[in-house]
Amino acid sequence: MTGSLFFNIAGTANTAFILLSLAGVAAQLRLVQRRRQRADASDGATAVLSLNQFTVSFLAYLSFFVYGYSIAPFNHFIVWPRLLASVLVLLILAEIWRDRRSRASLASLLLALAAFACALAGLLRDGQHVDEGRVLASTMIVAITVLLAQGYAHQILLILRSGHTGAVSLRMSQLVLLMDLSTVVFAFAMGLRLGWPLLLLAVVSGSTKLAILWLFRWQHGAQAGERRRRCNPGGHRRRHA
Fold first, then answer.
1. What pTM was computed for the model?
2. Where are the domains of the chain?
3. Where are the alpha helices (DSSP H) in the chain?
4. pLDDT digits (tens, 9 = 90+) for 23-35
5. 49: how many CB neighbours lie within 10 A of its CB?
């Protein structure tokens, strides 16, 4: 009874944080849409956003959606929030394609649409081949964890190269980090036999989100230093005269 209570509490808390993180993903989508509507925009609406990272993030959400309906019993705490997250990130991929019109963005969008259709088809099979689906989803999650680490590394590198965070949303990073922390707790509540894929991905995702949050702080420090130099360009020379 205690284990069941812990599972329900952890699952409810994780669902709440996932829904909160969806507000962060929605904030990212709104930020892109606002930037696209600016008449005086000097860069693209999706500047500095990593297509790589958002494609892998979509696949990560989708793989947990598949994993949640592939295990027994059907895990509502995993399935429905990840389905909503997949839809929101899919919309961001559509915005990236709309802004860039590149072959890479089109390929990512088509891949995401095809994967989404296959995942929904799997849900409609009504529990057939549960064991095979769980093994397939677990394998997907391990592969996607590696790709997610690479995708976030690419996003971090883009920020460092450009010197600013561009269209990257601070709120999304903060809320997804909270979701990752709650997912770690929920993974232990599930038991490591079933929960290890959630634990693996949450630890990797949370670590990269911490790095991105540090880059926001780094950017603000760099901007403040630049403003001080512009306001007092000769101050350094006068102090050493």
1. 0.74
2. 2-36+46-233
3. 2-37, 51-70, 76-100, 103-123, 130-162, 170-190, 192-231, 235-239
4. 888 888 998 888 8
5. 25
CB neighbour class for 174 (10 Å; exposed up to 12, middle 13-18, buried from 19): middle
- CA dist 87 and 89 (Å) reads 6
The secondary structure of residue 42, as a DSSP letter, is: S
Q: How far apart are CA 190 and CA 24, in angstroms?
A: 26
Contacts of 158 (CB under 8 A, 6+ apart): 48, 50, 166
| DSSP annotation of 73 | S
Quick one: 131 exposed, middle or buried, by C-beta within 10 A (0-12, 13-18, 19+)?
exposed
Tokens at residue 32, please? Answer: 């892109």
Residue with the larger pLDDT of the pair 40 and 142: 142
The pair of three-digit structure tokens given for residue 49, joined into one six-digit string: 């956003």
- Sign, CA dihedral 191-197-202-204, equals positive
The answer to whether the beta carbons of residues 116 and 63 sit under 8 Å apart is: no
